[in-house]
Request: fold
Amino acid sequence: MARPGFDRLVAGLCTGAVGAVLCFDASRLSRNGRDWHHLLELCGLVGARVIDLDGVYDPCRPNDRLLLGMKGSFARFRELGSARQVLLSLAADKLHFPRPSDSKRMTAFDWTPIRYRNVISVLKNPFYAGAYIYGKSEHRTEIVNGRAQKTYGHGKPFEEWDVVLKDHHEGYIEWGEFERNQKQLAANAYGRVGDAKSGRGGQALLVGVLGCARCGRRLKVAYRGRSARVYRCDSPNLMLGAARCLTFGSSRVDPAVARELLRAVEPIAVDAATEAERLRMERVNERRHILELDLQKARYEASLAERRYAACDPDNRLIAAQLEKNWETALRRVEECQARLEPETRAIGQSAGADFVALAKDLETAWASPNVSMRSRQQLLRTLVVDIIADIDEAARDVILTIHWRGGQHSQLRVRKPKTGEHGCQTPGEALAVMRSMAARWPDEHIAASLNRMGMRTGQGKTWTAHRVSPLRRVHGIDAYLSAQKDGEWLTMRDAAAALGVAPHTIRRLTKTGVLPAVQVVPGAPYQIRLSDLESEAVSKAIARKGRPYRSASADPLPMFPDT
Reply:
């Protein structure tokens, strides 16, 4: 949506025509956290003040910037959905947080890098939502060694707070948003039961989403070895000592759910990819613009330091030395800004020609790309899926997955569960089909090359070679290419030449003249020679003949010089 008023304000700040921004609620003036922090960057760059009903703030000062940044920082949690990711984002921006330096008196503070507990305290504090709260904690009395002992600071559930006065004062967020934040934080707590958890990476796609159809608890992930992942319901075993409700591996379940997910998003994949690329380029351009402003400010400060040093009286050596030191510091600041800006400029140039529409049409390739992290896949899954209820049909040996899509739709997916002792390193059926179709015509070397060109792999994910094709072909009872069986009755030209003790071109000459019979499965295929044909009298005479090449006798030879 076009906002000419806000754009004029930003333009005025950039030109230096605006010295102060007066507003009732500056965070709502910018509509979202990205624009709000951009506005603070510009005010700090040009030295403009921000004035609201609470006071006058200087964005160049750390404490004022913290108060102003608090009004827009809740947007990061709305965007990222995780307190941990908010911490990483704020730490990347090098935001500092005040910490009391005089213990509990809290009259002096030190500015230290932000910590996780700082983020949690801000997100969970109802004061920032405009509410007055009393009675969030209680004291408890226990009998210890026959004497009453009181302990304090025990938190109480939200429903048991003594006093809750909503809209008590102006807040940074609405009360409804505060409640949604608390639900999201509670859902993200992996050690507690509840809704589907936020994606946080790992190697399993469905972690935190799978629920047990038998007891209703969340399934956990167990790792076996380097890549083996197993989903299982451990709660009955851990709490009651009973047997686990169900256990199944992820090697077949994860790809099946991924295919179902891609099938669901395929109709809107192109539009989604285009919109995602547009938003990504907006963030990249915004980050580059901020770095350009930092570089502009650093160059101005370096120029100012140079002029101050030039205007200094050389006789004032102490002052001149300090001014020279300030100039060197400003020049180093310019170099740092240039070093930060160059990677952003290269990233924009490299991604300018990316065909995201074509990539969206091939969703499986995009999903399997090494540039896509497991956390991104998990977030996409949680965007479309509420949860997945799992059960096992023991008779059919199928894992039954009931997918609850957002919007109220449900679908069921059945995935075959391997038998006990059945390993997952099996050759794909497509590779065996190709092997059966080619084995009668081509040697193992050609079969391996064809499988590699088709992008197929062995059961262990390795490329194909003749040594890997040969044993697999024998195990499945696939007859080999006739001359590929070295102990058989058919030979290649090279093998026939070795058997007769002649050069390969001699065998080729004999096959062209018809002395030595040879067959081809298809035109262009290698010749195959029967072992018994090498013992014929014609072949023996042709090999024994020296000098002129051998030609078979003709019944009616044509004279070279006919009578005239």
